[in-house]
């Protein structure tokens, strides 16, 4: 039976209450100041792979959209991350964070040292948006419903606990406090309009669950590799190797 618009929205929001990655132990560690400098750096390196893939995901989505109005509405998401001639985007702001935590931004941008599980999870998301129905692709983006809360907590926690945190280094998160609500207002309305059967509502809910799994898997990989137990797979960023290589490069 098709749920009412209000009941379906409640269903989507409940997915976030139960499954969003703000509940992951790595975020609790990060926001409370419990991460070492190298654990913060590992998070910055791996999260960059996700940030850099977002405009590719959105471009893949737009390449399948025949409705000019939907393309116009979606286009700002790419500009928000890639930037424009007049304004920096989210990718550049994330590289400022990399600068602030003491990483070589060229190394971060190269995506070397990214955990395999991060690559698999993020690449799976890009493929999902490219290959699934437009409804499922938009529904997967609705984790933005829950993002402002985590960004606000992150800003507060990082400012309180880490010397690198300031207005410049945290500019990515401050901008998302404005960008995410704008994006999700459109996306949520679109999903509620087009998920007009029980089958479509189930597909949209499953897509949102998939996206929460993508985000959760990235933190699982970080926690396993850099927190406890520290088991880094071959090729992942290693603090000691990184420091030795960049010391030699600087000399």
What would the keywords be for this entry?
251 residues, mainly alpha, Heme Oxygenase, Chain A
Can you walk me through this structure?
Its EC number is 1.3.3.11. It is an enzyme of class 1 (oxidoreductase). One of its GO terms (molecular function) is pyrroloquinoline-quinone synthase activity. By secondary structure, this protein is mostly helical. It has a single domain, classed as Heme Oxygenase, Chain A (Up-down Bundle), CATH 1.20.910. 73% of the residues lie in helices and 0% in strands. The chain has twelve helices and no strands. The chain has helices at 5-19, 25-31, 37-62, 68-82, 90-100, 105-110, 116-131, 134-140, 147-161, 171-194, 198-226, 239-250. The longest helix has 29 residues, at 198-226. The protein is globular. The chain starts with a helix and ends with a helix. The mean pLDDT is 94.
């Amino acid at each position: 039976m098709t749920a009412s618009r209000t009941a379906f929205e409640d269903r989507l929001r409940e997915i976030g209450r139960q499954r969003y990655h703000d509940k992951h132990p790595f975020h609790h560690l990060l926001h409370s100041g419990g991460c070492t400098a190298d654990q913060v750096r590992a998070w910055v390196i791996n999260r960059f792979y996700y940030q850099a893939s977002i405009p590719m995901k959105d471009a893949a989505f737009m390449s399948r959209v025949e409705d000019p109005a939907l393309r116009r509405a979606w286009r700002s998401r790419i500009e928000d991350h890639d930037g424009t001639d007049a304004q920096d985007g989210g990718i550049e702001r994330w590289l400022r964070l990399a600068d602030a935590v003491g990483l070589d931004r060229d190394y971060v941008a190269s995506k070397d040292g990214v955990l395999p599980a991060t690559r698999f999870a993020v690449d799976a998301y890009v493929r999902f948006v490219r290959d699934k129905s437009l409804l499922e692709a938009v529904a997967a983006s609705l984790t933005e419903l829950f993002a402002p809360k985590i960004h606000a907590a992150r800003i507060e926690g990082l400012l309180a606990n880490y010397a690198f945190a300031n207005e410049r280094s945290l500019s990515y998160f401050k901008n998302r406090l404005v960008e995410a609500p704008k994006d999700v207002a459109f996306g949520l309305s679109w999903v509620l309009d087009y998920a007009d059967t029980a089958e479509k509502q189930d597909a949209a809910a499953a897509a949102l669950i998939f996206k929460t799994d993508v985000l959760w898997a990235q933190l699982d990989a970080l926690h396993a590799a850099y927190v406890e137990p520290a088991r880094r797979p071959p090729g992942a960023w290693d603090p000691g190797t990184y420091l030795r290589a960049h010391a030699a490069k600087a000399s």
